[in-house]
Automatic annotation (TrEMBL):
It comes from the Eukaryota. Keywords: NADP, Oxidoreductase. Residues 5-131 form the NmrA-like domain. It comes from Decorospora gaudefroyi. GO terms for molecular function: oxidoreductase activity. This is Isoflavone reductase family protein.
Length: 304
């Protein structure tokens, strides 16, 4: 299977920007899907305008006219129906590969994770939908639609700036879960962009697979050490019990509290995101290497 023309939707988001940047630096021909009323601007990038309601026939026509081989979806993973429409359009247009909006801190293939975080169930629904289309024959010798879901762990460099990793860098505070020695996987945004490119460069090896990658495999105490080294300051440490934290925040999340949802993601993304134990751990297969913790933390601190 050869992939030449790649389209991305969601190219101005937290993840979409670095993925688009990595794609533009690759050998692929890159296009961006942009809804009709969107104010997003993409300099020096070919833009395909699509209807706001993602009408399947019209999106399929646009994909077909531009000979799109792969569609990368970086809109919010909670937008299940929008993703299904895009997948239906890709199926109709003869697109060879779809990467849904999986990514993210937690593993939607894990039963316990879906119990803790109903948010993840939407990602599983989309992946199950892609699975149901795997054997669907298409007309005109189009071949079958394939997919790759990529799970990245916490967005590491971004997460240090917004409390996702349980550190308040500006306030010099560390919220340490269960003693701080749990190994967890996290990925820098640029690294995720590279991983997407590597997947497209190995279309046969990555077809119809759920893959896990990380640029860091660390404990909170290791991150704390790197932060104290980079800032030259001692952080105030607050020890927390993950079960107690979840017992307090989950009911609020289930009642619709967005901040509580982010806190549940933050906690669970530390205590239940060890990708090295996963069958689909793909760093080696994709030729991706872990990145230097001190270097990345130093860069983030300098930017803050």
């Amino acid at each position: 299977m050869a992939i030449t023309n790649v389209a991305l939707i969601g190219g101005t988001g937290t993840l979409g920007k670095p993925v688009l940047s990595a794609l533009k630096a690759s050998e692929f021909n890159i296009f961006v899907l942009n809804r009709q009323t969107s104010k997003s601007v993409y300099p020096k990038t070919r833009v395909i305008t699509i209807p706001d309601d993602l009408n399947v026939d019209e999106v399929a026509k646009a994909l077909r006219e531009n000979n799109i081989d792969a569609l990368i979806i970086t809109i919010a993973g909670s937008h299940v129906e929008s993703q299904k429409k895009l997948i239906d359009a890709a199926l109709k247009a003869g697109v060879k590969r779809v990467m849904p909006a999986e990514f993210g801190s937690c593993d939607s293939a894990d039963e316990r994770t879906n119990e803790i975080l109903p948010l993840m169930k939407g990602k599983k629904v989309v992946r199950d939908y892609l699975l149901s289309l795997e054997d669907k024959e298409r007309e005109d010798g189009m071949g079958k639609l394939t997919w790759t879901s990529l799970v990245t762990g916490h967005f590491f460099d971004y997460g240090l700036t917004c409390g996702l990793l349980k550190f308040d860098v500006k306030g010099r505070k560390a919220y340490i879960l269960d003693g701080g020695n749990i190994k967890f996987s996290g990925s820098n945004l640029d690294f995720i962009g590279k991983a997407v490119v590597k997947i497209l460069e190995k279309p046969d090896d990555t077809a119809n697979k759920l893959l896990y990658v990380h640029s860091h495999y660390v404990t909170q105490l290791e991150v704390l050490g790197a932060l104290e080294k980079a800032t030259g300051n001692k952080f105030e440490r607050a020890d927390q019990n993950s079960k107690e934290e979840l017992d307090v925040t989950r009911p609020k999340m289930l009642a619709g509290d967005g901040e509580a949802r982010e806190e549940v993601v933050a906690v669970w993304g530390v205590v239940a995101s060890d990708w090295k134990k996963k069958d689909g751990f793909a760093n080696e297969m994709l030729g991706l290497e872990e990145e230097d913790l001190d270097e990345v933390v130093g860069r983030v601190v300098a930017e803050l």
